[in-house]
Amino acid sequence: MIAYVINPGSASTKLALAELERGENPNLPAQLRLQLTKVEIEHPALSSGHLELGRLIADLTAAAAGWPAPDAVAAHCGLIGQPEPGAYRVTPQLAEWLLLHPHGEHTSNVGAALALALGQERGAAAYIVDPPDVDELRPEARLTGLSGVERLSRLHTLNARLVGRRAAHEQGLRFQDARVVVAHLGGSISVSAFEAGRIIDTTGARLDEGPFTPTRAGTLPTRAVLDLAYSHPRRDVERTLLCEAGFVSLTGTADLRELERREKTDAQVKLAADAFAHQVAKSIGAYSAALSARPHAIAITGGVARWESVVARIERRVGWIAPITVLPGELELEALAEGVGRVLLGQEEAHDWQAPAALGT
């Protein structure tokens, strides 16, 4: 099977030709064989205007001109307000609706429109895969101690599900039979508990909970948040928590390669790295306890997973809980390819998007 997969970014968009085959282990049918040919298209900060999209669609079409015809085109999608994971068929209505940012700004809100346009150009069906707002939380995970305030499920669904699946496969288990905790450690962080293939609890990402990141504050004492909120305008507080906190606040830089070099001689950087590993380990322990029994595996992924000494600290703290799989970086193109591949190979059914009542059906 052949698929084109698209991962829109704020300054560049990644495109890949995916060649997919069934795996060799009949006990793990979702363990597909995958080969990717990747290209990256740089562009100015992407907005949802049709002019910008038109140029990007032309660039994508040109980049794929010499590739074999695809069986499907899949893209990372934005916030669609649908609870189920997996692949969704893209319709013109869905593509247009996502460009309105109905559930909030997200770079990949343009993904459905890109997949639809490239699919129409090459005569293939278009899909989006694993929206970031997939919501499978258990009721007790959603509830907080304040009536009317609930936890949201917005995380790195695409990458986390792929990594969780691969960690389960390493233990000889199908994803739907496994309990896995996935720590996505990147520019934003989420730690999530997967049981029977479902995200039953998560820190969330952005302004939710969990460890600090290269630029984000993570969970703070409530008193400190109140002090910030009452002494600064909301916009300034959000900028501080999202862009001026974490490693950049503690050490002066968010550059992980620089931090890795400096921690050998800079006591402040070493302390910040220790604190980061401490917070990640605590979150992994907490979300292990959210499962019905001990996890079969722990998976660590994201850009920070390339920082070997930090990962080693985390492994020393949580290795007693379960075997650990480390998959550095973001594997979103692979996740898109495998997600649509399971549909093409008849292992999963694609979902049909349900339009909000206000838009009709």
UniProtKB/TrEMBL annotation:
Taxonomic path: Bacteria, Thermotogati, Deinococcota, Deinococci, Deinococcales
Keyword Nucleotide-binding: yes
Broad class of where this protein is predominantly found: cytoplasm
Organism annotation: Deinococcus irradiatisoli
Molecular function (Gene Ontology), one example: ATP binding
Protein's name in the database: Probable butyrate kinase
Superkingdom, natural source: Bacteria
One GO CC annotation: cytoplasm
Locations listed in the record: Cytoplasm
